[in-house]
Design brief:
The protein is an all-beta fold and 86 residues long. 0% of the residues lie in helices and 63% in strands. The protein is built from no helices and seven strands. The strands form two sheets. Strands 2-5-7-6 form a four-stranded antiparallel sheet, with no helix packed on it. The two termini are 26 Å apart.
């Protein structure tokens, strides 16, 4: 049975352990914390997944990223873009 889990993103290069085959649904702020929500199979083995957060106007220093989504901080003062490294 699938379940939706929330994971907090810490730092600009977060690594998150989540069940194998998890599908990231979105990235948004919850209060002052950027988070992703994912559809997971809680019984699947855990795997480490790597993400990168890039600010608008900043260089993308990787070539193996898959775009997840965009989120805003501080009322739109900062705009960030989340990629998963494949």
């Amino acid at each position: 049975m699938k379940t939706i889990y929330k994971y907090e993103l810490e730092g600009s290069n977060p690594h998150i352990e989540m069940p194998y085959g998890s599908k990231v649904l979105c990235v948004q702020m919850q209060g002052a914390v950027p988070c992703i929500w994912a559809e997971v199979d809680p019984d699947a083995p855990l795997v480490k997944r790597s993400f990168r957060i890039v600010g608008t106007g900043h260089s993308i220093d990787f070539t193996n990223g898959e775009y997840i989504g965009t989120f805003q901080m501080h009322g739109g003062t900062f705009i960030w873009h989340l990629y998963e490294l494949i």
